[in-house]
Design goal:
The structure holds two protein chains of two kinds. By secondary structure, chain A is of the alpha+beta class. Chain A is about 20% helix and about 30% strand. In chain A, the strands form four sheets. A six-stranded mixed beta sheet of chain A has the order 10-11-12-9-3-13, with helices on both faces. A six-stranded antiparallel beta barrel of chain A has the order 14-17-16-15-18-19. Chain A has a five-stranded antiparallel beta sheet with strand order 5-6-7-4-8, covered by helices on one side. In chain A, a hairpin with a 5-residue loop joins strand 5 and strand 6. Chain B starts with a strand and ends with a helix. The mean pLDDT of chain B is about 95. In chain B, about 25% of the residues lie in helices and about 35% in strands. Chain B is of the alpha+beta class. Chain B is globular, with a radius of gyration of 13 Å. Chain B has five helices and nine strands. The chains are: A alpha+beta, B alpha+beta. Chains A and B meet through helix 2 and helix 7 of A and strand 4 and strand 6 of B.
Chain lengths: ~375, ~120
């Protein structure tokens, strides 16, 4: 059990509110963040049934501005950004020369700029990367004076519409400037839970006020990063550092959908040759879902083996994220397996404390996404 | 009369007629959060003091539970197989893990009593 004293941790503008609400705080990417309030399972289930408010202000918020900013960004990512319509949001990855993933990020076309959300643990590295490679082509503004709130769950839209009526008309993966209870915000209809919901970029000095207004709505409860983790795992979404990193390519990570059609043909991003070859010839390993029988969760780094024998057979991969899925009601995991073992329902074993747990490759997500699409 | 002693790793042992009942403390269950699985030792297993005796799986992580004293496991709490959450709701009672025949009562005496443990927990926050 970690003692969080003695570390130099940053705090978000909602720190006092978290303490007041009885959150258990823990260090996350250099920030003192709320891990849970009532309990992870209760918060997880409440998010799926109602609405929950998460503080994700530790994430990086950046605006890229410039004449050819989309073309500049395309030199670093395999996504199509020159075609991205104003008001649309797109998921992409920063790649390295080997096709590995430096970070995954959300990019919204804000009209005269791109609004970018980066992982907390990667933001310094990403900013240096932007600066070094496209700093000459666009202006990089770090929005360190903004908090980020995620309102997630099926009731999120009804709650937010009371404070910002136009949010009702937004579709999944769109973003726009909205006045939320008279606070000027940038709102994106997306999230990290598999549920409908919004991420709200708000000026730091208004963040606590807005969070209190949202928490005052009867459907909303605060939720911590513990529930965010179990929600994203059930939703089959990648966690940077676990499921994707500089050694995994988007093709191996089952993120080929994020590689634009034009970009496949043209290339022009780091690692394009590696990724083109993998798209054409296939990969040796693939990210898959894993469902074990029984109740024992297999966690990150558990070896995945052929299913023979109590001690498991030859190793065919490794779990990269795993735990208990409260909505599934049992253990869920994802990891990489040899491509020829990546088909759904393939029997495998997960090795936990020297014992082989019978499991099968499973389709992702474990819990259907309920995004608001046309 | 039963005596209860505590370890720095937040296990408790309650001694009744030479038999020790072992569990984790209220503080420990709160720190672990929602418990979803408990792996218990085999009945008959011989434990040395501090040896890994059980594993608690919370939503977040797996944590080892150690034998507070040396001895032989005589019974495990079968109820935890279906209701691991009992450890959260009644850590000091129905949420016990296993019983053991205590090899050396002196080891029990050298653990913390309730007041000392309380002071220890307060020093952690």
């Amino acid at each position: 059990m970690n003692d969080i004293q003695g570390q130099d941790l940053e705090r978000t503008p909602l720190y006092a509110l978290h303490r007041e609400r009885g959150a258990r705080m823990a260090p996350v990417a250099g920030y003192e963040m709320p891990v849970q309030y009532q309990g992870i399972i209760a918060e997880h289930l409440h998010t799926r049934e109602n609405a929950a408010l998460f503080d994700v202000s530790h994430m990086g918020q950046v605006i890229l501005r410039g004449e050819d900013v989309a073309a500049a960004l395309e030199t670093l990512v395999p996504g199509d950004f020159q075609e991205l319509p104003v008001g649309k949001t797109r998921y992409t990855v920063l790649t390295n020369d080997r096709g590995g993933i430096i970070d995954d990020l959300m990019v919204t076309n804000g009209g005269d700029h791109l609004f970018v959300v980066l992982n907390a643990a990667c933001k310094d590295k990403d900013l240096a990367h932007f600066e070094a490679h496209i700093g000459g082509r666009c202006k990089i503004e770090v929005l360190s004076d903004r908090a980020l709130l995620a309102l997630q769950g099926p009731a999120a839209v009804n709650v937010l519409a009371r404070l910002a009526p136009p949010c009702r008309h937004m579709l999944f993966m769109t973003g726009e400037s909205l006045s939320v209870a008279d606070v000027p915000c940038f709102v994106i209809r997306s999230g990290y839970t598999g549920e409908d919901g919004f991420e709200i970029s708000v000026p730091a000095e208004e963040a606590e006020h807005l969070a209190r207004l949202l928490l005052d709505e009867p459907e909303v409860r605060p939720a911590g990063l513990g529930a965010r983790e179990s929600l994203r795992l059930e939703a089959g979404l990648c966690l940077y550092g676990n499921d994707i990193d500089e050694t995994t390519t988007p093709v191996e990570a089952a993120l080929s959908w994020a590689i634009g059609k034009r970009r496949r043909a043209e290339g022009g991003f780091p690692g394009a040759a590696v990724i083109a070859r993998q798209l054409a010839e296939g990969v040796e390993r693939k990210r898959v879902g894993l469902r074990a029988e029984g109740k024992i969760p297999a966690r990150a780094h558990a070896p995945i083996t052929e299913p023979d024998g109590a001690e498991g057979g030859p190793v065919i991969g490794e779990v990269t994220s795993g735990g208990y899925g409260p909505t599934v009601g049992g253990p869920v995991a994802m990891g990489y397996v040899k491509a020829e073992r990546a088909r759904s329902d393939t029997p495998v074993s997960l090795m936990v404390r020297g014992k082989a747990l019978a499991a099968r490759v499973a389709k992702l997500p474990f819990v259907e996404h309920r995004y608001f699409k046309r | 009369m039963a005596i209860v002693r505590y370890t720095k790793e937040h296990e408790w042992i309650r001694v009744e007629d030479g038999v020790g009942v072992v569990g984790i403390t209220e503080y420990a269950q709160e720190q672990l959060g929602d418990i979803v699985y408990v792996e218990l030792p085999e009945v008959g297993a011989e434990m040395t003091q501090g040896a890994e005796a059980a594993v608690v799986e919370s939503v977040k992580a797996a944590s080892e539970i150690n034998a507070p004293v040396a001895g032989e496991v005589t019974e495990v709490n079968q109820n935890l197989a279906d209701n691991p959450g009992t450890v959260n709701t009644d850590a000091m009672g129905e949420g016990w893990f296993f019983k053991m025949k205590i090899a050396d009562p002196g080891e029990v005496d050298r653990l913390m009593d309730g007041a000392a443990y309380q002071e220890y927990v307060e020093s952690l926050s």
